[in-house]
Design goal:
126 residues, mainly beta, six-stranded antiparallel sheet, 13% helix, globular
């Protein structure tokens, strides 16, 4: 079973999305997995606090896997969900352990996950 390292856990807990490029099933496409977190509040979803030493009972995680045509990589064009191939989106994941289980279907080496801001050009959809 894959497990997040401390750096990855801290990033997720404080609201930094992590991503990895995976093998695409279509020629001229690129595939990505992006994961992140949010807090459930009475007013809806909110960005998590950047404080690590706090209560996480309202913290939830999300998972997105998708493939996109290479022409959108590095482009400023808006991409809709309909333009994605093999799109999977799950939210309301209640723990890091459950997120690890969801992620294992698509990725065996969790060490490849990195903050989304490190992607250059930026990810076309996350």
């Amino acid at each position: 079973m894959g497990q997040f390292n401390v750096f990855q856990k801290n990033n997720l807990i404080t609201g930094t999305h992590l991503a990895v490029e995976i093998t695409s099933s279509f020629p001229n496409h690129r595939a990505f997995v992006v994961i992140g977190s949010y807090e459930k509040t009475l007013k809806g979803h909110a960005r998590p606090s950047s404080i690590l030493n706090r209560d996480y009972s309202d913290l939830r995680f999300w998972f997105r896997q998708y493939e996109v045509d290479e022409k959108f990589i590095g482009s400023n064009e808006d991409i809709s969900v309909e333009q994605l191939a093999n799109h999977v989106f799950k939210k309301d994941i209640d723990s890091l352990e459950h997120l690890e289980n969801e992620l294992e279907v698509y990725l065996q080496d969790f060490s490849l996950l990195k903050p989304v801001w490190r992607f250059d050009p930026k990810l076309p959809f996350n």
